[in-house]
Amino acid sequence: MCQSATHDSSLGCSTVTKFRLADFFDAHWENYLKSDHPPINPGQYKAVSAMRACRTPLLGVDYYACKSCGEVVEVYHNCRNRFCPTCSWGDTIKWAERIKSQMMDLSHRHAVFTLPHALNPLIKRNGAELLNILLRTSADTLQDWSLHKFGIKLGIISVLHTFGETKEFHVHAHMIVSWGGIDPITKKLVPIKGDYVNYNFLKDKFRCKFQDCLIDLFDTGKLKHDFPNRISFMQFLKRINQTNWIIHLEPPIKTPSGVIRYIGRYSKRACLSERKITDIDGEYISFRHKDYKTIGVDNKPVEKILRLHYSEFFPRLLQHVPLLNYRLVRYYGLYSTKSQIPESYLNHDKETEPDEQDWENPFVCTFCKKEREYQYTVFDTRTRETRIDRFDSKIHPSFVHKRDKLYKN
């Protein structure tokens, strides 16, 4: 685990916020580890260590200088961990720009498929096994519906989330669904007219598909559980079925650019955006959240503030650290293989997304507007300071190229 370090928000950091999550962990993580706390797995330790070291001398600082005026800037290395709120924001921007050109030139809908909270103990215990089933069966539900009703195959991009607004355990899949597809006979791009769907059909289909997979895991002995026998397991499923499973679809959005702008915040971003942190006061942290049970005069959820002690906040947040090597974003239907879609059917909108953050290019001089040149890198190992010069014979020549490519991408 890394030691506490001072975070720097200078050049090389794309997010400028009043409060930093890493600072709160720096202040209280060691005390939390000494207390009576829930078990912490290796992936959670790794995520916290990466976030605390992100953009500090522990990961290294690159020094760039302008050849004309001599101006020198520092560029801090990032951790690139999916739990880090700053790094995940950058990943979201890159993903949105890349995926936009791979989407069909059709309207798309934002869909959400949610699992009942009664399944949470099984999900926490079985992890990837049940999460995979959620992503697969939710996509299959929409595919079966479109094939049955319209005879077309959809394109679907699914993003797994395990958290709700207050960061409690709330498992659901956000989906970008093409509102149309390619006719298997004419091979033409066919939009779906209207936005009506039979929600009851979709809910029943989703529930049956998910539970069939769950029962299969139980019958083959692959499900980790505490049920004494199959009868008690089936009684448990019957109790869950007494309430409707939740599915939500937003109205169609006409352009891929529009839907990416809308759903981008749901993709690769960390579970808590630092922009939502309203205060860090000693051992307490406060953040904004939407209360969907309370609707305001504008017919939108009322925004509230939740204040938590670090002893409650840390385990609530850590339960959402992504599983190691787990793919949170999946592609189904026409989007599962690029070759299924002719180039002429893809989105060619060149519109670029407005940058929500202030960004100063560390590779261009502020005064001369010329490209700065890399000089050397410094690593603070806490025992000694290590410096790597550009022309250091001990360093492989590709080092500078790989590092510059990392930042520029």
Report the span from N to C terminus.
28 Å
List the helices and strands in order: HHEEHEHHEEEEHHEHEEEHEEEH
Overall mean confidence score, pLDDT: 83
Indicate the proportion of strand residues.
15-25%
Helix content: 25-40%
- Taken from the alpha-carbon principal axes, the silhouette is globular
| Order of strands, widest sheet | 8-3-5-4-12
The tally of helices reads 10
DSSP strand count = 14
> What is the C-alpha radius of gyration, as a whole number of Å?
24 Å
Structural class: alpha+beta
Overall domain count: 2
Low-confidence stretches: 1-6, 9-15, 352-359, 391-409
Main sheet? 5 strands, antiparallel
Q: How is this structure best summarized?
A:
This protein has helices at residues 21-34, 42-53, 85-100, 120-126, 128-149, 199-219, 230-240, 256-263, 310-318, 398-408, and strands spanning 61-65, 72-76, 108-114, 155-163, 169-178, 180-182, 189-191, 246-249, 277-281, 284-295, 301-309, 329-333, 373-380, 385-389. The protein is α+β, with helices and mostly antiparallel strands and 409 residues long. It folds into two domains: 1-101 and 348-409, no CATH class; 105-270 and 330-340.
Map the helices and strands.
Layout lengths: L20 H14 L7 H12 L7 E5 L6 E5 L8 H16 L7 E7 L5 H7 L1 H22 L5 E9 L5 E10 L1 E3 L6 E3 L7 H21 L10 H11 L5 E4 L6 H8 L13 E5 L2 E12 L5 E9 H9 L10 E5 L39 E8 L4 E5 L8 H11 L1
Antiparallel strand pairs: 1-2, 1-13, 3-5, 3-8, 4-5, 4-12, 6-7, 9-10, 10-11, 13-14
Helix pairs in contact: 1-2, 3-8, 5-6
